[in-house]
Amino acid sequence: MQIIENDEQYDVVIVGSGAGGGMATKILADNGLKVAVVEAGPFFDPANPKQQTQLKWPYESPRRGAGTIRAFGEFDMALGGWNIDGEPYNQIGDSKFDWFRSRMLGGRTNHWGRISLRFGPRDFKGKDRDGLGENWPIGYKEIKPYYDKVDKLIGVFGSKENLYNEPDGYFLPAPKPRLHELYYKKGAEKSGVKVIPSRLSILTKRINNERGICFYCNQCSRSCSVYGDFSAGSCLIFPAQKSGGQVDLYVNSMVREVEVNEEGKATGVLYINKKDRKEYRVTGKVVVLAASACSTARILLNSKSAYHPNGLGNSSNLVGKYLHDSTGSDRMAFLPELMNRKRYNEDGVGGMHLYSPWWLDNKKLDFPRGYHIEVWGGLGMPSYGTGFNPNDLNKYLGLNVGGYGNQLREDVKKFYGSVMGMSGRGESIARKDNYCEIDPTMVDEYGIPVLRFNYSWSNHERKQARHMHNTFEEIIENMGGIVLGDKPGADKDYGLLNPGRIIHEVGTTRMGSDPKKSVVNEFEQLHDANNVFIVDAGPFVSQADKNPTWTIMALSWRTSEFIIQELKKQNI
Amino acid sequence: MNRRDSIRSLFLGSIAGGLALESCVTEPNTEIEKKIWKYQYGRTPKEQAHDENLLGQQFFEKSEIIKIKRLANLILPPNENGNIEEAKVPEFIEFMAKDFPSIQTKMRGGLMWLDTHTNKKFGKDFISCSEDQQHQVLDKIAYPNPNSNEQNQEVQFFSLTRNLVMTGYFTSEAGIKELGYMGNQPNVWDGVPEDVLKDHGMSYDKSWMPKFVNQSKRNDLAKWDEEGNLIS
Known about the structure:
The structure holds two protein chains of two kinds. Helix content of chain A is 20%, strand content 17%. By secondary structure, chain A is of the alpha/beta class. In chain A, the strands form five sheets. In chain A, strands 1, 2, 7, 8, 9, 10 and 18 form a seven-stranded mixed β-sheet that branches. A four-stranded antiparallel β-sheet of chain A has the order 13-14-11-17, with helices on one face. In chain A, helix 4 (179-190) packs across helix 8 (459-478). Chain B is mainly α. Chain B has two domains: 1-185, no CATH class; 186-232, no CATH class. Chain B is 54% helix and 0% strand. Chain B has helices at 3-21, 29-37, 45-55, 62-75, 89-99, 104-122, 131-141, 153-170, 173-179, 194-199. In chain B, helix 5 packs across helix 8 (153-170). The chains are: A alpha/beta, B mainly alpha. Chains A and B meet through helix 4 and helix 7 of A and helix 1, helix 3, helix 5, helix 8 and helix 9 of B.
């Protein structure tokens, strides 16, 4: 079938509408450029009552919110998940990389935890400290002005703490901790674990007149209908359109490849419209890829041409390499002191009100990089699973487990809000032999070759996870709590979750100054084609123990300004 | 089985189950439509079609539904707070059997086991037994052996049913009210109530207080000085 042409000639074609693509859209359109945003999923606006799940009750769903359809429960606002019908991926050997994709305008920003941490000075230069991985070609100094701008544009609450590697920003005020969080603080501080207010991109105070203020429903994962949390659609793309920007949205459009001319420069992209399954071409002077680290690698590797026989930007053979996700391991605790709690509305914001940034010096430890601790618990909204094993905790009280009758009602009420948990999220070391590549044996339902993954953890990550569990157990004991479950041993990688599970996958198109050792330069520009840029987490050289979103956006802003300059100078 | 495999197998199962069940649709279309229109929240057209397909099928037979209702009432007898019919627990269990097809055989086999057991012991099926006899059956299967990782199938069946009944009830309007959950509504969080803090011997650190939201100024546009200090 013939490719359907589009008469529009854009300044910039952006692939993907999440954190990176949304930010590029905002900055480029605000500067008068004509932008096409090509998104693989449907249009989504959390303010649209027909798409809204915020403030719905579990009994409004026939499955009471169970995660049969959507991985994080059916009110969660990520359309997609670990597996998407018709869009498979494969593993090499016994790899178990779990790949989470969200197909919708705004991508994964609609459901994420809003944890908005800056990388610190040390995070850009890990190799200087321990000889592992690679340093970034830039440091905190270069990115700081953009973090500042992101803080002011989008809004993030937090507190000034003057911690060297946890730089302060322009914070909105933090919400007061919940009860279990106060218990955590007491227990953690007793062990010398630092505890500070969280840093989440949720508006605890008015930031402009277009967005509402948080009304404390705890449901940021459902994407906020008053735009009180950060999602790329509601906070970047819609504002870019409303301020008169020339932004054309192409939704349900699955990009297959970037097209290039005889000089190897990009001319635009080819995509498949999911509705009519026909191929379309959209052209532009610049192509910005923001499809997510692995999807962008896939597009590049599928963009083979006479000039780029190995895939676009892949003369180094490094596209897809150095894939790495945060480490993760979790533990739960039962706090007898929280049994039979007084009831009050403890929803708060959609995430924890305090957390522990990395507090130790790795030189004194047997693993090279740090982790932070997230805390959860409280008097949350019941959902599918509430009331399961209603009185299992009785075994810690010397009482009967099981049974039937109205005693069960009392058991459920007695234990409600008495269990809390901790999650360690740490930095892993980027390795060349952790990668994604094209699987020549399989295509998706749009005929596009799919990815396969090769990934293993090393002892650096395993030892870090072991340290997490030792810390969790110590804190739980300090809190007067009872540790639930056994400590995972070596046979279980000390409780390390599968790679991909923390959904912080980065590094597939890493940045550097040497084209033989990196895919993009410090402005996220392909070494091999100067009018192609990557503004998702692909260019990350290392991911720190910080959630990547704030850094994606700061870099995307910086790159967008560079694109504007280069277009003005007619360099691209 | 890891999560991905279990989801995959659930998914495969639901296709297989769906095909087998289509002939069991007994309800008139108007009834099915009524069920479908009860559920209004943001779903994709594909998700909605999937749910409508499940809602249009019937897995449990009438006699099984009667047994499920009886069991649910034994697990959570009605009281002044609510009852399992009001909480739509049987409808929920019917839906979950189609949503998680891997539980179908365990549920159906367990319901059959009840009759086999009472026929042998009391000479009549479970429903025809007196409440006291029904309690005798439950006493046998409602207490998993805490020292064993392997429970008999009838114990597993009862644990599964109990979980579904309990979660069905405590995610219903009456159950949520009984539990005392007070959120899911716009409000202004200003910390744990004073009396609760006191009960737990907790307080907010004085040195932390300036970090927290002053809720009377939440509507004032945020402004900072050059050092990043909030000044509004």
